[in-house]
Every structure is written in structure tokens, then in C-alpha cells.
Amino acid sequence: MARIITMRNALSEAFRQVMEEDPTVIMMGEDIAGGQGAPGEADAWGGDLGITKGLLGRFGPDRVLDTPISETAYIGAAVGAATAGLRPIAELMFVDFMGVCFDPLLNQAAKFRYMFGGKTRTPLVVRTQYGAGVGAGAQHSQSLYSLFAHIPGLKCVIPSTAYDAKGLMIASVRDDDPVVFFEHKAMYDTVRDDVPERAYAVPLGEANVVTEGDDVTIVAVGRMVHFAHEAVRKCAAEGIGCELIDPRTISPLDEDTILESVERTGRLVVVDEGYPRCGFAADIAALAAEKCFHALKAPILKVTPPHTPIPFAPNLEELWLPSPARIAEAVRRVME
Amino acid sequence: MQLNRDELLKAYRLMRGIRVFEERVHDEFEAGRIPGFVHLYAGQEASAVGVCMHLGDDDYIGSTHRGHGHCIAKGCDIEGMMLELFAKQGGLCDGKGGSMHIADFDKGMMGANSIVGAAVPLALGAALAAKTLKRGTVAVPFCGDGGSNQGGVLESLNLASVWKLPVVFAFENNGYAETTAASWAVAGGDIVNRAAAFGMPGVQVDGFDFFAVHAAAGAAIARAREGGGPTLLEIKLGRFYGHHEGDSQTYRAAGEADRLRAEHDCLTLFRRRVVEAALLDADDLDAADRAVAEEVEAAVAVARAAAPPDAAALSTNVYVSY
Question: How many Cβ atoms from other residues are within 10 Å of residue A122's Cβ?
Fold first, then answer.
């Protein structure tokens, strides 16, 4: 019996289940409950988009902590707490805000295990909103996952379905390494699929083959999986068979699934909502060029935004974002 | 500091301009004609205007996500602002910035900023430039109670004293960081208490009272201009609307915003005071109301009719040269 729920509800359920199964799991962030110290309703927001609503009532203020607007302090504290017996889930409201507080992840959490000779564990999840498409402007719309995948010691998770969001969140919380978990702000209510009620984990580092095909391999993550899927349907009608691969986690990366597919199809299109330079798409393209060059029948194509910040005006933002039409066009070009 | 008739009228026009602008933006946003997010300044007008009346175009201000009032008080063009909010050609930032990122460097307005507290160290840099280049100008970063808890803001307070910069920190404490009460999130009581720890004077002022803000800001800015170093102002006020448009505001006490409008409206208080003291006639103020309403209405009409940016604008101005 299918149970179709939104990504929002899948994540909420994951938080509830991991907090129930492990009393060391705590959550912290700005207004993740809301109304702290205010005269009105407690748990007024449950996060800026209501994703964590209800957790305060269920688990109490010792495990659901609102913070002042002090990202450096609380992300740093989450890292420290993770080394000292807790398993924090820290919400960074928008990934753009990482500019304020990168050090605790970049130089601290990512390095501890290695630098301290394997003597520490930092079981931490930083969950954060990313992505363009809602007119949020240059400082609230970026897809910065490649920055984190660049750093050895961090894991980087980008779900595209409600099922994966729940399973990957549970896996991330149970994982003993620091994980940065990316939630696209335009997907919470628009993405709905079949999600089991039980607590289950989707392993980090296992790609999902969304569609099978023999002509072109498409690799995409997050919201771009849905855009690419639309392109796959369009191309199928034109007789082109696309294998759409969603790595689900870009660090660790399931290289085998991607390379096996490219070996077979000989053609690769990579779709990325992040900036084009030194990013995820470039990384996957380099991987294929390096490891299956002789199987390639056409140049590898990247479908990315241009190398510009994200414009506010909706007409420009739409041009900025990769689109299903541009992905389909790239597929046709590698087939020429 | 005595204000003459023209200055009083200017102050009223600016405050009224901000109010009408925000009320119209509220309506236009609700009608779906403004994309993205807006955070309204209505209720806080006495702060922006009381401070910026002391500043010229060569003085800099830094702003916040709630920046429309700072822009207007600093002299930004209302039509250019409205076009920007509507994401249209001719906007102050060509439609590429939006409400949270309006800037006009010709007016010394360094930008609204959607990263909380981020403008504070930037304005510190403007003060450093003023000092280094011996301009005799000052910088005023505006920052909310929420931003007062950012590490970079606290570091800026320290650095301003260490370098003895011509800067006045204007903390607008409207009681809430999004939904979170300042009384909970600002440890140590009031923000003004932090001034002593960083070796600068701290002044707390009633932000509903234009004259109180004007006097306190005037003294602090004069001191900074004369090389006396930084001052921290805590301007206590309240916002009439939510954190952003669409905020249900259930964290507030019932009727709280209505009480602010009824009892603590800086415009009403200003009008009462100047009319009772016979500094201005009610007729002058009424005429200002009409003029401002027409100006804002005209800006809305222009913004609605204007074209969105050309597609070519997508890739311009990423760099000066590349």
C-alpha cells in the first residue's frame, strides 16, 4: 500500500524517528521552534518553512534548541558537542549563510578524524536549504554543495525524492562523520512519493538509477533530477534512451554506477544547479574523461547556470537556471 | 539641537515617505506584483530619519534585510527603489538586487543586506576609508537586535575602538529576531550594555521619538566626525508588520502591533509635538502627506508599467573586467 507524502513530511518524520531512537540526538538552529522568550505562541514557526514544527513539544527544550543569530557559535558548538557525546542536527537556515560560519566545518569537523590520528568521531548533521527559483536573490539562492564536497572529511547529501530525503537523513544522523545535508527550498511541498512509515536508512554513497537507457547517461542531483527526468521523457518520445543517474550523495560518490553506465552509452550529460567552475558537473565530467575516455562517442556536456551570481528578476532567474529544454537539447547534441 | 522649519518638514516628509512606501509595498506584494521576499520598515521611521538627517551623501550607511527605510532616509530615489522591488529595468540595481539588496553608492547607501549583521564590518571599512583618506566623513551601520549577536558584529565593535574609527553603530532593537524575543536572545540585558565592554559610549534611545533619536545620533555623529571615535546607539522601537510579508506573527502578544500603531506611532507623535509647539501647521503636514502619497503612487505606476530587465543583463557586471 503506497503512502504518498511530501518531502516536508518525510523529513519531519525522519527527525521524529531519529530523536526517538537515540536520546543523544539534539536539534539546534534559528527559529527551529520560534517564539523563544516572546509573549505569543511557542513553536511559532517550526523553522522558517515549518519543517521542524512540533519537535519542541515532543522532545522538549533540552533537545530542540533555538539559537540567537550566531551561526559561528552554534555551528561550532554543534561540532564540539558531536565530539563530546551528542549527535547534533544543526540547521543552517540557508546554505548561503555558511559564509558566516565556515570554519567549524572547514578547519575543524572535517579535519578531526584525520588530524587526531583516528581518535575522534564527529557525528554531526548540518542541514541546510539551497537552490534558486523563488526570487530570493543572490544571497539566499545558491547551490553551494560543491564547496563541501571539495573538502576531505565532510560528507555531502542531496536528496531528490521524499523517500531518499527520509532514508538519507536517518543514515546521516546515524553516520559517525560530519554530514552536510542539502534540502532544496522549492522541493518541500512539490516533491511527493511513496515513503514507508518505518525508520529506514538509504546508504550514503549509493546512486539511484532513475531511468534506464542505452544511448545517453545523464547525471543530476537534487532538483535537477526532476528537470532531467522531464528531459528524459521528452527524449524518449524522440527515440533516445537516457539512463538518468542520481548519485544522491556527491561525497562519498558512487563512481562505479556512473562509469558503468558511461561505458555502455558512450555519452554523458551532467546537470548541476551549482556554479559551473570547479563544481559538481565539472567533477563528474573529469571522472568520466579520465576513467572511460575510450568509450566516449561524443564530447561530455555540462548543463549548468552561467558563471554569474543569481539575479533577482524572475525572468533573469529563469534564464539562469538549467531547464528541461536545455537538458534535452544537450542530449540531442551528444547524439549528433 | 534645534531644527528649523525646513528641517522639520524634511524629517516629516521622509518619515511619511517611508510609511507610505511600505504600506504600498505591502499591498503590491500581497497582490503578487512584487517577487521574492520583503521585510517592511513601517513603525521604525524615526530611527532611519533621525540618524540620516545628520548625514550627507559622502557619509556611508550599512543596512539590513529591512532596508527600505534606510534607503529613503539616505536619499535614494523612490521610483528607482520601487522599480527595483518590482524587478524592472531602471531599478536602482537594474532589477538584479531586489528588496534585500538595494544599494546606491552615490547616496552613501552601501546596500540592504540579506546576511544578518554583514553590513556592520562593511561600514567599518567605509569608516576606515574616511579616516585614512582624511575625508571628515562618518559611517553608520544599522543592525537589528538579532544581528547584535553575530560574531562579526561583536568583532567590529572591538575593532572600531582599537582603530578609533569614525563610526556610529545604530542598533535598531525592534524586540524580535524573526520570531525570537530580544529579551531572550540578547544576553546581558540591553544591547547598550555592550558598549562599555568595547570601550565606547553607549546611548539607549526611544526609537518612536524622532527628536530623541535625532539628538542622540547628532551627538554621536559629531563626536565621530571630530575624531572622537565610535559610539553605540541602541534605538528601541517596534515593527508594525511581521518579520517578512506572510509572517503569521503568532509569537507576538495579541493586539501587540495594533497597540504600537495606536500608542507608539512615530508619525503621530511627531505631528502632535510640532503642532502643539507651533513649529509647523497641521496644513503643512497635510500638504506633505498628499505630496508623498502622490510621489509613491506615481512610483508604483511607473514600476508596474516598466519592462523587466533584458535577457542580456543576466551576464553583465559579474566583474569590472574579465
Answer: 26
Which of A283, A209, A208 lies closest to A248, judged by CA?
Answer: A208
CA distances from B209 to B40, B50, B181, B216 (A): 19, 9, 22, 11
| A200 within domain boundaries | no
Distance in Å, alpha carbon of B175 to nearest chain A alpha carbon? 9
Q: Do residue A187 and residue A294 come from a single domain?
A: no
Same domain, A180 and A323: no
- Residue pLDDT, tens place only, A35-47: 999 999 999 999 9
Closest-CA distance of chain A to residue B149, Å = 6
| One domain for residues A31 and A161 | yes
Q: Beta partners for B158? A: none
Overall average pLDDT of the A63-80 stretch: 97
Q: How confident is the model at residue B84 (pLDDT cuts 50, 70, 90)?
A: very high
Residue B303 in contact with residue B98, Cβ under 8 Å? no
Does the residue B156 lie in any domain? Answer: yes
CB contact under 8 A, B149 and A68: yes
Q: Which of A95, A102, A139, A312 to substitute to test the interface with B, most B CBs within 10 Å?
A: A312
Contact B98 A34 (CB under 8 A): no
B250 closest CB neighbour out of A36, A40, A100: A40
Residues A189 and A294 in one domain: no
Last residue of a domain, one of A148, A168, A194: A194
Strand order in the sheet with B139-144: B60-62, B139-144, B168-173, B231-236, B202-206
pLDDT at A1: 81
In a shared domain, residues A217 and A136: no
Q: Does some domain include residue B46?
A: yes
DSSP B151-186: HHHHHHHHHHHHTT-SBEEEEEE-SEETTEEHHHHS
On whether both A118 and A250 belong to a single domain, the answer is: no
Q: Answer yes or no: is B320 within a domain.
A: no
CA distance A227 to A281: 15
Domain count, chain A: 2
Stated pTM of the model:
0.94
Interface contact flag, A134 B181, Cβ < 8 Å? no
Neighbours of A336 (CB within 10 A): 5
Instruction: State residue A228 phi and psi, 5-degree precision.
Output: -65, -35
* Percent of chain A topping pLDDT 70: 100
Q: Which residues form the domain of B213?
A: 5-315
Boundaries of domain holding A189:
4-194
Confirm whether B321 is domain-assigned: no
Number of independent structural domains in chain B: 1
Q: What pLDDT, on the 0 to 100 scale, is given for residue B1?
A: 63
Range 130-169 of A in CB contact (< 8 A) with B:
134-140
The gap between the terminal CA atoms of chain B, to the nearest Å, is 50
Quick check: bond before A159 cis, omega within 30? Answer: no
The CATH number covering residue B213 comes to 3.40.50.970
Q: Are residues A138 and A183 in the same domain?
A: yes
- For chain A, the first-to-last Cα distance in angstroms comes to 44
Closest residue in chain A to residue B146, using alpha carbons only: A69
Pick B177's closest partner by Cβ from A39, A68, A314. A68
pLDDT band at B70 (very low <50, low <70, confident <90, very high): very high
Pick from A7, A125, A253, A137: which is nearest to B65 by CA? A137
A216 and A319 housed in the same domain: yes
Question: Are the C-beta atoms of A181 and A169 separated by less than 8 Å?
Answer: yes
User: Is B100 in Cβ contact with A139 (below 8 Å)?
Assistant: yes
Task: List all residues of chain B from 203 to 222 with a beta carbon under 8 Å from chain A.
Answer: none
Give the pLDDT mean for A109-117: 96
